[in-house]
Each structure stands twice: as structure tokens, then as C-alpha cells.
């Protein structure tokens, strides 16, 4: 099934399900593509279908592409969900790489509305205090230093 057909299939399923039980449903249509131009085309098509959310895989797409898509989404009433496909290659190794907190803050600054931050259980498992620490970094305007949550300085 081609991408446009998948987008239509998902949109129809969302609307059919909502009509059946009056509950709001959602699905993040993946706008990630090989070029920024193609990503925008995908976001435009999602918007034309009336789907309020699009998704971007930031590591495979890149931060510049993420910011480009974020600007389009913000200007056109779409929510941009950031997926973290391939993140473990960067933030899981103990001897190199960078913590997901750094990636999450960069994504937040580049315009992400919603970031797939993981959980303290399951496949995206992380240490509880540390995971909640970077979730707070994304959510709150002011964060007090708290070494137990791996927040090493007060941030405003």
C-alpha cells in the first residue's frame, strides 16, 4: 500500500471509529521523507484529510527538517509528534553518545509539540527519576537543580 493510500486508509478509520462511538481518535501520520519538500507535501496531504497530527522521525530526518516541518505545522494548525526511531544507537551506549535529555531539549527548541519520551517500564524503559526529570524539562518553564533526577543546574 502506497503512502497516500495509507494516509487515506488511516483517516477513514479514524473518522469511522469516531462516528461509531463518539470518542475522539487519533493517529500520527508519518511525514518523514527524504527531502523537506516531500515532508511538507505529506503534511499538506494530512491536513487536507483533516488529520490534526503528523509525526516525524527526527534522527533519520534531521533537526533542520524537523524545524522546517515544525514551522509548517504551527502555521497550519497541525500538531507535530516527534518519534525517536533509532535513538538507542545514540543514547543507550554507556561509554559514548549523549543522553536523551540533550536530544529532547534540542527537539523542544526546534519546535516539537509532542515528544515520544519513553516510559519507566516496557520497551522504552528508563530509570524512573531520570525519565521523569527530562519529561519535566520539556513540560515546565523553570526547573530547579536536582541531581537525583540528573538535573545538574537550575534551568529557566
Q: CATH first level: which class?
A: Alpha Beta
* Main sheet: strands, sense, barrel: 4 strands, parallel
Topology, number of strands: 4
Number of helical stretches of at least 4 residues: 7
Query: Which strand order spans the largest sheet, edge to edge or round the barrel?
Result: 1-2-3-4
CATH architecture term: Alpha-Beta Barrel
Helix content: 40-55%
Rg, please?
17 Å
Protein name: Ribulose bisphosphate carboxylase large subunit C-terminal domain-containing protein
InterPro entries: RuBisCO (IPR033966), RuBisCO_lsu_C (IPR000685), RuBisCO_lsu_C_sf (IPR036376)
Domain Ribulose bisphosphate carboxylase large subunit C-terminal: 1-156
GO biological process, one term: photosynthesis
Can you walk through the features of this model?
This is Ribulose bisphosphate carboxylase large subunit C-terminal domain-containing protein. Residues 1-156 form the Ribulose bisphosphate carboxylase large subunit C-terminal domain. Keywords: Photosynthesis. This protein has one domain: Alpha-Beta Barrel (TIM Barrel), CATH 3.20.20.110. It has a four-stranded parallel β-sheet with strand order 1-2-3-4. It is globular. Helix 2 runs parallel beside helix 4 (63-75) and helix 6 (100-109) runs parallel beside helix 7. With 156 residues, the protein is an alpha/beta fold. The protein has helices at residues 3-21, 36-48, 58-61, 63-75, 88-91, 100-109, 128-139, and strands at residues 29-30, 53-57, 79-83, 114-115.
Describe this structure in a few short sentences.
This protein has helices at 3-21, 36-48, 58-61, 63-75, 88-91, 100-109, 128-139, and strands at residues 29-30, 53-57, 79-83, 114-115.
Amino acid at each position: 500500500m502506497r503512502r497516500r493510500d495509507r494516509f487515506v486508509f488511516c483517516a477513514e478509520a479514524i473518522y469511522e471509529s469516531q462516528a461509531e462511538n463518539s470518542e475522539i481518535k487519533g493517529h500520527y501520520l508519518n511525514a518523514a521523507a527524504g527531502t523537506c519538500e516531500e515532508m511538507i507535501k505529506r503534511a499538506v496531504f494530512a491536513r487536507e484529510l483533516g488529520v490534526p497530527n503528523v509525526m516525524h522521525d527526527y534522527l533519520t530526518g534531521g533537526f533542520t527538517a524537523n524545524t522546517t516541518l515544525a514551522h509548517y505545522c504551527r502555521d497550519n494548525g497541525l500538531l507535530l509528534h516527534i518519534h525517536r526511531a533509532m535513538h538507542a544507537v545514540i543514547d543507550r551506549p554507556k561509554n559514548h553518545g549523549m543522553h536523551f535529555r540533550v536530544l529532547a531539549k534540542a527537539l523542544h527548541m526546534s519546535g516539537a509539540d509532542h515528544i515520544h519520551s519513553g516510559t519507566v517500564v516496557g520497551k522504552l524503559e528508563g530509570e524512573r527519576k531520570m525519565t521523569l526529570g527530562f519529561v519535566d524539562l520539556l513540560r515546565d518553564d523553570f526547573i530547579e537543580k536536582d541531581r537525583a533526577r540528573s538535573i545538574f543546574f537550575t534551568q529557566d
